Amino acid sequence: MSRQRASAVIINGNSILMVKISDHGRSWWCLPGGTLKEDETPEEAVVRELQEELNVSIKPGRRLYEAAMPYEPGTDLGILIEAPVEIPRLGIDKVVVEWAWRPLAEVGDAWQVVEVRKALLDQ
Question: What is the CATH number of domain 3-121?
Answer without folding.
Answer: 3.90.79.10
